[in-house]
């Protein structure tokens, strides 16, 4: 890594080059216009189709790429510095969390000429200012005691070490109230992990997102990171164990849940997908055709 004293003398373009790999024209990943190719993370989405109906034009589509492989999808708000959702395929997992991975950032949010792979934050914090306008940086979470870094695509829902590592991008993270993060949200995450491990026979697609509250984490007297009001999640698995007990079977092929990101009244509520979409329409800037999964996860017969 180039010493901080040396990089301060470099123009921004040169600093970005130092931070990133050589950009290869034609690599369709990182920040993308759509997700409609395999190399743009299409395989992370049920029927290759992202949630539809978001009205804001300021959101950025990220194909979360790590070690030259597409891993999952994120719709990112570069103004509020949080993901609106991450979409991924669930991998059968033992639920163990890996804590030795470095936190990473998305170079292409700062410059479209940068690497299409997420990269670890430089150790020199003075270099973080080169991309903090477009995304959260480690300093935003450094002195906040109320919040944990909550992954929308959680480490515990992945199995391959590189897939697990890729979940440690701050573009996959929102501020979660600590009591919610380690309590109801963690319990629900493990419940879904066990349910999909035991009863999903095919591929399971998951979308996990947020609604915003108006509260923000501030740093240096600036609004830096929006704090979600609710976190929600939905899964779609069309090939499942038809002999599962009824109390499980009726939650296939698709089901959803939401919880209040707060210290109290933060229990998770499991509901059908249509109820989830109705709940979110009243709390997000989406149109009447808002849909989490293509055709509501009803397979073509």
UniProtKB/TrEMBL annotation:
The organism's place on the tree of life at top rank: Eukaryota
SMART domains: Endonuclease_NS (SM00892), NUC (SM00477)
Coiled coil (residue ranges): none
Pfam family, one: Endonuclease_NS
The entry's keywords: Signal
Gene Ontology molecular function: any one: metal ion binding
The keyword Membrane appears for this protein: no
Record Gene3D superfamilies: Extracellular Endonuclease, subunit A
Name the UniProt record assigns to this protein: Endonuclease domain-containing 1 protein-like
Keyword Flavoprotein: no
Every DNA/RNA non-specific endonuclease/pyrophosphatase/phosphodiesterase domain range: 68-286
Signal peptide residues on this chain, from the entry's feature table: 1-29
Organism the protein comes from: Champsocephalus esox (pike icefish)
Domain ENPP1-3/EXOG-like endonuclease/phosphodiesterase, residue spans: 69-300
């Amino acid at each position: 890594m180039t010493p901080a004293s040396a990089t301060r003398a470099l123009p921004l373009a040169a600093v970005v080059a130092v931070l990133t790999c050589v950009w290869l024209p034609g690599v369709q990943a990182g920040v993308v216009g759509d997700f409609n190719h395999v190399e743009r993370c299409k395989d992370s989405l049920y029927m290759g189709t992202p949630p539809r109906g978001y009205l804001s034009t300021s959101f950025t589509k990220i194909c979360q790429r790590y070690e030259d492989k597409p891993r999952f999808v994120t719709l990112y708000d570069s103004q509020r510095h949080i993901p609106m959702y991450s979409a991924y395929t669930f991998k059968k997992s033992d639920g163990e969390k890996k804590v030795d991975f470095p936190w990473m950032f998305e170079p292409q949010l700062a410059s479209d000429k940068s690497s299409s792979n997420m990269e670890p934050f430089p150790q020199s914090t003075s270099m973080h200012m080169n991309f903090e306008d477009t995304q959260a940086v480690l300093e935003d979470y450094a002195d906040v005691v109320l919040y944990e870094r909550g992954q929308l695509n959680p480490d515990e829902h992945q199995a391959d070490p590189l897939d697990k590592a890729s979940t440690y991008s701050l573009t996959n993270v929102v501020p979660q109230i600590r009591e919610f993060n380690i309590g109801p949200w963690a319990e629900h995450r493990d419940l879904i992990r066990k349910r999909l491990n035991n009863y999903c026979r095919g591929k399971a697609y998951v979308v996990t997102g947020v609604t915003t509250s108006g509260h923000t984490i501030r740093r240096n007297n600036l609004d830096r990171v929006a704090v979600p009001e609710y976190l929600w999640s939905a899964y779609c698995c069309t090939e499942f164990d038809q002999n599962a007990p009824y109390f499980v079977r009726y939650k296939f092929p698709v089901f959803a849940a939401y919880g209040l990101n707060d210290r109290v009244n933060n229990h998770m509520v499991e509901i059908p997908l249509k109820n989830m979409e109705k709940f979110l329409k009243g709390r997000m800037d989406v149109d009447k055709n808002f849909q989490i999964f293509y055709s509501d996860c009803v397979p073509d017969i």
